[in-house]
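Before relying on records like the one below, remember that each one covers exactly one chain. Contacts with other chains, cofactors or solvent are not represented anywhere in the record.
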Amino acid sequence: MKKINFILCIIVASLFLSSCDEEFLDQRPTSFISNEDLGETALINPSIVEGNLRGIYNQMVTAYIGGTGNQEDFGHKSFDLMSDLLSSDMAQIGARFNRFVNLSNLLWTNDPSITLPNYTAWRFYYRIINSANLIIAANGGNDAVPASDAVKGVVGQAKAIRAFGYFYLSQYYAIEYDANAEILPIYVNPGESGKAKSTMGEVYDLIISDLNSAIRAL
């Protein structure tokens, strides 16, 4: 009798487990916040998505953000200094601490294998662009207009930042404006795999579109 009862218990338990709703067991991962979770949370508490935006601004002044251990690699202002030196808007008279000297002497730009600024600018500005894409995607995507004014303001800033990133890339990786010249791959969604280069005209169309969208949102 005990054996029969034991078998019956196993059968009942099996039926109970197999009848559980799959959606009940299929919970969202709790080890990280997905874009979907972030977007839903932003509707309740906009400060969550504002925190992500502050993270982008923090990246802009982070040491070694360009992927090197060089002291010349300290975010956006380091590239402002480099561009001033390359365009002769600023002259480096002395070389006491040996910073940016090889750039001002036009040595770095003659060798593509040197990371500063050839690789670091690419890595830095695309990292900024991807972070902006994450915020935009989490709040409905490129064509969405958030209902919340607070979230709308954050998305507007993210689009302005994306335009900022592509504008600076266009300055570093093109000699002059040529609408038909292929200069940069365009990424408007996070996590996209490598793409072919788009034309300068397409890059500028995106920059202008993002800035107009940012103006409306802000």
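Strands lie at 182-184, 198-199.
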